[in-house]
TrEMBL record:
Organism expressing this protein natively: Rufibacter quisquiliarum
Family: Belongs to the universal stress protein A family.
This protein's name: Nucleotide-binding universal stress UspA family protein
Signal peptide segment: none
InterPro entries recorded: Universal_stress_UspA, UspA
Domain UspA: 2-145, 155-277
Amino acid sequence: METILCPTDFTACSENAIRYAAALGQPMGARLILYHNIYEPVLMDLAPFGTAPLVEAVQDPVYREGQQQKLEALAEAQRESPFNSGVSVECQLSYGHTLDSMVHTLRKEHVDLLVIGHEGFQEVFGYSLTARIIHEAPCPVLVVPPHASFKYLNRIVFATDLKGESFTDMSLVCQIAKLFNAELQLLHILEEDTFTGRQRAQAGLGLLLKRLPYNKVSTHLEVHPEIEEGIHQFCFQQKADLVVIGHRTKNFWQHLFLQDNTRQIAAQTFLPLLVVHHTL
């Protein structure tokens, strides 16, 4: 994991995410990009439906300069922090639609991990942006709740639906676990406790365990009618430091993202939430 991108809207929540991203990247010697987008509508946004635009978007160079200075001040503060030695910090400013511009930057910079402060983006860009970022981002997304401060990762919970995590997904999780010598707990939540369901889940967890290139791994099977609450209770009992869940289009987890329950999970556990994309 070489490059981390952390967007900021200059709220306290997004600045907390920057501190978390820098601390996470420190043992990796990562490149940390602080990113801000200035919303500028494309020409078609300015035109009445079915007509051609008559004018271009008005751009304010004074505002741009002010945002650039704020971004550079954040970057300089991270460079001067004694806790971020080994982290290379830079900043990038882009213009356009927030989501489109961010995804373009993620691809252009070959970003390995996107770190976002959840509450700040909800306030500024609207209720569903986090879910849309998770869906569109070409890399894993780490969602940092507003009051989560970085602490050494001793225990990581991977909540799996047992639908076939790809090797790429699991190798990323194992890479983080190895870096911190953390215990990796594979968790599956059964909504209903049946003999057949339990047998299948135990077999699935066993197969997943065998394919992992990591030895500090345990499997856990819990029963709860609400998946989000089941994850929350397990993480609280185990004193987890990070929660990991997978995301693929049209899968068992899809309703979690469409209803934005990613926010609910993060808020309930007060833990950072890492979302990895399935490639199968």
